[in-house]
Amino acid sequence: MLKLLAQRFAFLSMILISLGLMLVGKADGVLVERVRLAVGDVVAPVIEVIFRPATAIANAVNGVRELASLRADNGRLREENARLMHWQTVARHLDVENQALHAQLNFIPDPDASFITSRVIGDTGGAFVHSMLINAGSRDGVRKGQAVVSGETMVGRIIDVGLRSARVLLLTDINSHLPVMVEGTRARAILTGDNSDRPRLDYLSPNANVAPGDRVVTSGHGGVFPPGLPIGVVSSVQDGVIRVEPFVHRQQLEYVMVVDYGLAGILPSDVSAAADSREPSARPQGPEH
Questions:
Q1: Which residues 6+ apart lie within 8 Å of 98 measured at CB?
Q2: Where is the Rod shape-determining protein MreC beta-barrel core domain (predicted)?
Q3: CA 276 from chain center: how many Å?
């Protein structure tokens, strides 16, 4: 009975104290604020002492978890390092074998490539054209037909060259036609742009086995671009139409490299220029009678 009365009295006392504090707060807000700050200053060290063991336990638990995570990461890195060492050995062996075979075949390597890094200063992409303007021109060594890459990925080629700027025709433009091949099967095709974000593969052999996820690279046919430049992956094969998802989209292009691979193509520029400038010879006239 006494315990019940004490609980009720304590509850009633808390209510009365709360009401009193509310009235004091309304009457003198500065006093209440000072009391609140004083209580906070007194209680803060006590709370810190109380929570110090809990904080230490939490830090110890986090340390154990981090240690377990580091141990797992260390094991994974060891496995990856072992695999990389294996592939490094294989790559060195293949490189030595490749050099030996090239020496036996009197192989003529491709000329060394040179490049110019340029910034994209204009994007004329739209429903009817996919091209870009860069801030490098003929004074920087840019020439029509050179490849334009982002990292190691081909994104287009130079079509117009000015003194200080040049225009890049992207692989997705309707006027873009590029000899390519499916890297896994070596099946050759023409990558044709149609002003969509995913160009299509045309003139592919009917017996070619192409599936989504296959990598598409340049084939080197025509002698304009070297073989093996990455372009994208096959994204869909539907109703005989094969679409390619480029590795780099035009919205991601800020800086590009204009690369001169030293390849003259099917018809060298100097020969074609000479052929264009050549006039038909005058028909020989016979002796007058």
A1: none
A2: 120-259
A3: 42
Q: Are 214 and 185 in contact (CB under 8 A)?
A: yes
Flag whether pLDDT at 155 surpasses 70. yes
The Cα 118–Cα 156 span in angstroms is 14
CB atoms closer than 10 angstroms to residue 140 = 17
Q: What are the tokens at 69?
A: 């995570």
Q: What's 284's DSSP letter? A: P
Tell which phi-psi region holds residue 198, choosing left (phi > 0), alpha (psi between -120 and 50) or beta.
beta
Q: Token pair of 22, please? A: 């509310």
Where are the chain's structural domains? 13-105, 114-264
Q: Taking a C-beta distance cutoff of 8 angstroms, is the pair 266, 275 a contact?
A: no
Residue 147, beta-bridge partner list: 157, 259
**Verdict on whether the full-model pTM lies above 0.85:** no
Minimal CA–CA distance to 167: which of 139, 135, 196? 135
Q: What angle do CA 58, 59, 65 make, to 5 degrees?
A: 90
Helix (H, G, I), strand (E, B) or coil at 178: strand
- For 207-222, the pLDDT digits (tens) are 888 999 999 999 988 8
Name the class of domain 114-264.
mainly beta
* Type of residue numbered 223: G
- Residues above pLDDT 70, as percent of the chain: 80
Determine contact, residues 122/240, Cβ cutoff 8 Å: no
Residues 6+ apart with CB under 8 A from 191: 171, 176, 177, 178, 179, 180, 199, 200, 201, 202, 216, 231, 244
Three-state DSSP class for residue 67: helix
Which two structure tokens, joined as six digits, stand for 213?
């996820």
For the stretch 179-193, pLDDT in tens is 999 998 899 999 999
